[in-house]
Design goal:
The chain is an alpha/beta fold and about 350 residues long. The protein has three domains: about 45 residues, no CATH class; about 100 residues, Rossmann fold (3-Layer(aba) Sandwich), CATH 3.40.50.2300; about 150 residues, Rossmann fold (3-Layer(aba) Sandwich), CATH 3.40.50. It has 13 helices and 13 strands. The strands form two sheets. Strands 7-6-8-9-10-12-13 form a seven-stranded mixed β-sheet, sandwiched between helices. Strands 2-1-3-4-5-11 form a six-stranded parallel β-sheet, with helices on both faces. α8 packs parallel to α9.
């Protein structure tokens, strides 16, 4: 005969406390209720001994709240989004919420399907990070009364917290040009941009920041200096290989739009002699500490993950979801020292000649 599962009332009787005290302890908010630590530990020991687990769905139905907060991200195998999910989980647990993080593979249909599934589990809040179609997600959330905020890529139907991609691209482009050396070749004496999708807000703003600095420094920017070839490393590798053939070498400066694109670019650069790499200034809009072991100096933009998620949670805490604001968080510009000090990174000034 199967043993009856312990209930919250069984634990309360065993512990000699009220059921509400047991609930507060098991929900993780006993400190806010000013319950003694000794009492909390006693309840936790009894719960473990009785193999008691909280039925979140039943609890959510009873209280009309689940304690669940969800986040969708495009992918897990990217330092920016993996760092974002870690910050999200920490900030959620600090508030005694239960975080759920799901990747949607940059697929709009999968985004909507995932959001519908999360809503069916009665999530109370949703952080929409890097969605390809955030407005469709917003419509679904509003239909079911789920409070939400966009992070990384903006929408028009909810408050959005994003990196200041235009400013960051300006800083990176200016620093690349300052560090680069003029070449005698007219074709190679240019800065080039590679990677991303031109219709994405982040890529578009980075392209605009890049183009404005190049125009200010050189008087104009040619269409072939910007190649939004896509996010995949193989596409970036092919784009730089083609550029190398077209202009007869590397350009004086190369702006790479993401670490994913950087992986592909590096595969091609490994086929070139070191003295040719030394004649090009390289920069990447995104950050990965492993880039410091590359055989050439590299400038990187590190997006402020703590700032992005901190602001998103401030919006959730204040319940100011109806503003539909666009909040931009400035990133950091970093320089990876060359081979003599590969383990170190140093921040560059917040503004390098760009207003």
């Amino acid at each position: 005969m199967r043993k009856r599962k312990s209930t919250i009332y069984d634990l309360a009787q065993l512990a000699g406390v009220s059921a509400s005290t047991v609930s507060a302890v098991l929900s993780g908010n006993w400190k806010e209720r000013r319950i003694a630590e000794a009492t909390a530990k006693k309840v936790e020991r009894l719960a473990a001994a009785q193999r008691y687990t909280v039925n979140r769905q039943a609890s959510g139905l009873r209280k009309n709240r689940s304690g669940l907060i969800g986040m969708i991200i495009p992918m897990h195998d990217n330092r920016f989004f993996s760092s974002m999910s870690q910050a999200f989980e920490r900030l959620a647990r600090e508030r005694h919420w239960y975080p759920i993080v799901v990747s949607t593979l940059r697929d709009p249909a999968l985004e909507l399907g995932t959001v519908r599934t999360l809503i069916s589990y009665q999530i109370e809040y949703l952080v929409v990070a890097g969605a390809t179609d955030p407005d469709s997600v917003s419509r679904e959330c509003r239909r079911h009364g789920v409070a939400h905020v966009n992070v990384d890529l903006p929408g028009t139907r909810a408050t959005s917290v994003i990196s200041d991609n235009y400013w960051g691209a300006q800083q990176l482009t200016q620093a690349l040009i300052d560090r680069s050396k003029p070449t005698r070749s007219r074709l190679r004496n240019k800065a080039h941009f590679v990677g991303g999708i031109a219709t994405d807000h982040a890529t578009r703003r980075r392209m605009e920041g890049f183009a404005d600095v190049v125009t200010t420094r050189f008087g104009h920017v040619d269409d072939d200096q910007i190649d939004a070839c896509g996010y995949e490393g193989t596409l970036a590798e092919a784009a730089v290989r083609s550029l190398h053939v077209r202009i007869g070498g590397l350009p004086r400066a190369l702006f790479i739009n993401s670490t994913i694109a950087l992986e592909g670019v590096v595969r091609f650069l490994k086929t070139l002699p070191a003295d040719e790499l030394a004649r090009c200034a390289f920069g990447c809009y995104d950050w990965d500490p492993f880039a410091s072991v590359l055989s050439f100096p590299l400038l990187m933009v590190r997006q402020n993950v703590e700032g992005l998620l901190g602001e998103a949670f401030r919006i959730i805490d204040s319940k100011s979801f109806g503003d539909k604001r666009l909040i931009e968080i400035k990133p950091d510009l970093l320089f990876a020292h060359d081979v003599a000090a590969v383990s170190t990174w140093s921040p560059l000034p917040a503004s390098i000649g760009v207003a």
